[in-house]
Design goal:
There is one protein chain. With 304 residues, the chain is mainly alpha-helical. It has 14 helices and two strands. Strands 1-2 form a two-stranded antiparallel ribbon. A hairpin with a 7-residue loop joins strand 1 and strand 2. The radius of gyration is 26 Å and the shape is globular. It is found in: Cell membrane. Its main location: membrane. It comes from Streptomyces mordarskii.
């Protein structure tokens, strides 16, 4: 019987795809690829091409070469404040919100009481969009009817948290960090659950303190999570738009590159070519971090 079955299997050979199988595979692969090309790569390539032109969306497209980029870097006052604010977002989320999320993950990983409740409460802001977070920030930091000024109870001289360009960026960063911290906490909590307990036990036997065990044993094992969190933090900072636009349309101290793209392309000026140049700058910076992440992942896969 085994010889007969082996002969039958050899006679049959590999299964051939029928025309129906090929049609199903074509639909399942073709539709996502078509959507990706249409909604992502198509507009991306179009923006790169339009960044070298002068076009208002109605008239003829005029080729201007790199003039848009020259104007952007040398003769467009909102650009550098927007770059500074974007870098400030990266620094604040990376140096404040991310370490705080890691701290919360470490505390919850120790199995404190009501940890499930804390996880749900801290993660809840993540399900909110940044636009909703912006509206909540207005309820808290508003000059006349905000909760913060009501608590401070200084009715004669209320602080204009969102109107003062020296203060509003920090208030918005606090609101954005409130949402970002929960996201980082969940990522690190998942990473901490996968750490081999025997590593901690071996470090304790060698006489390492709890702090030394974390920084010399646990944290190095979280390297893949660190890379993911770093890339997500940078992307979140660079694509920030909703919260500042909900507060004051990204003006008066809250300028961001994403807001400048919108103002030039959709605004009254309809400078589509110029707005596309800003979008390309934002894309280039984002791609730098994304490519770094992909290279790290590919190297890790080869070593594994």
């Amino acid at each position: 019987m085994p010889l007969i079955n082996a002969r039958r299997a050899k006679r049959r050979g590999p299964r051939r795809f029928t025309s129906r199988d090929l049609a199903v595979i074509g639909v399942l692969l073709g539709i996502p690829i078509l959507l990706d090309l249409t909604l992502i790569w198509g507009p991306t390539l179009a923006s790169i091409g339009l960044s070298f032109t002068n076009w208002d969306g109605i008239g003829d497209i005029q080729w201007v070469g790199i003039d848009n980029y020259k104007t952007l870097f040398t003769d467009y006052p909102p650009f550098w404040p927007a770059v500074r604010n974007n870098l400030l977002w990266v620094a604040f989320l990376g140096c404040v919100a991310t370490p705080f999320g890691l701290l919360l993950a470490v505390l919850l990983d120790k199995g404190v009481r009501f940890s499930r409740f804390y996880q749900s409460t801290l993660y809840m802001p993540v399900v909110l969009s940044l636009a909703i977070v912006g509206f909540i920030a207005q309820l808290i930091f508003s000059r006349d009817q905000g909760a913060l000024n009501a608590i401070l109870a200084d009715k004669d001289n209320p602080v204009d948290w969102l109107g003062d360009p020296e203060l509003n960026i920090w208030m918005v960063l606090l609101a954005a960090a409130w949402r970002h911290t929960g996201y980082v906490m969940i990522l690190y909590l998942a990473g901490l659950k996968s750490v081999d307990p025997s590593l901690k036990e071996a470090a304790a036997i060698d006489g390492a303190s709890e702090t030394q065990t974390f920084f010399r044993v646990v944290l190095p094992t979280l390297r893949p999570v660190n890379v993911i969190v770093g890339v997500i933090t940078v992307i979140e900072a660079l694509r920030a738009f909703d919260i500042v636009y909900a507060i004051n349309h990204g003006r008066n101290g809250l300028e961001l590159l994403s807001v400048l793209v919108t103002d030039n392309i959709i605004g009254e000026a309809s400078r589509i070519g110029f707005g596309s140049a800003i979008a390309v700058v934002l894309l280039t910076v984002s791609m730098g971090f994304i490519v770094t992440y992909l290279v790290q992942e590919l190297r890790g896969g080869k070593k594994g």
